[in-house]
Amino acid sequence: MGLTLANYLRFEWARSTMMILFGGLSEEDAMPGKRADVISWDEFFMRVAIAASMRSKDPNTQVGACIADGDHRILSVGYNGTPMGLGDDEFPWGASDDPLHDKHSYVIHAEANAILNYRGSLKDMSGATVYVTLFPCQECAKTLVQAGIGEVVYLDDKYDGTIGNQIAKAVLDRCGIKYRKIDLPESAMH
Ligand SMILES: [Zn+2]
């Protein structure tokens, strides 16, 4: 059957309508019901870590962590804060030369809290990925190794090159734990 003018016009109308609706996507991409511009898993878990950091009462450094397993399930989240029972409302959130009055003596870091908050079997942590807004300190690096974490994904590495940072990286390197930095769009950062 030849292409009549009416059929041709009908085809053109359908094609231009599809272009308007789907912006020139191929027929396969334009399957109804599926969004193509979803955020990646990396971005999703890092956004969860950022959300956790927003719970931190620390006036200077807010850090969040999210642990996800290989099936993209969130195992745990944490942020830097005081131990349970040590009220973070009355807590002196300043640094001091006196360790008794220095917040650093009391605060548990985000990654450590994420591990400690987990109520399932630690076996689940084996090979899991931790998303952290700040590169782990040397103490957390060791804790992550012992928990069986397989990969560290971080946003910021503001202590890059300091002794503690070098130790943290040496620990991760020697224990075969990968680490990589990701960047998020500015709109995801707040
Ligand atoms: Zn730490």
Description:
The protein has 190 residues and is an alpha/beta fold. The chain contains five helices and five strands; from the N terminus they run ααββαβαβαβ. The protein has a five-stranded mixed beta sheet with strand order 2-1-3-4-5. It starts with a helix and ends in a 9-residue tail after the last strand. The mean pLDDT is 87. Bound molecules: zinc ion. Zinc ion is lined by residues 109, 111, 136-137, 139-140.
From the N-terminal CA to the C-terminal CA, the straight-line distance is 60 Å
**How are the strands of the biggest sheet laid out side by side?**
2-1-3-4-5
Beta-strand portion reads 5-15%
Largest sheet: 5 strands, mixed
Name the overall outline: elongated
| Number of contiguous helices | 5
Mean pLDDT: 87
What's the number of extended β-strand segments? 5
Q: Supply the helix-strand structural class.
A: alpha/beta
Please trace the helix and strand order, writing H or E for each element. Answer: HHEEHEHEHE
Please give the radius of gyration in angstroms.
Answer: 24 Å
Bound molecules: zinc ion
Point out poorly predicted stretches.
Answer: none
Oligomeric status:
single chain
Can I get a quick summary?
The protein contains five helices and five strands. With 190 residues, the chain is of the alpha/beta class. Helix 4 packs parallel to helix 5 (163-174).
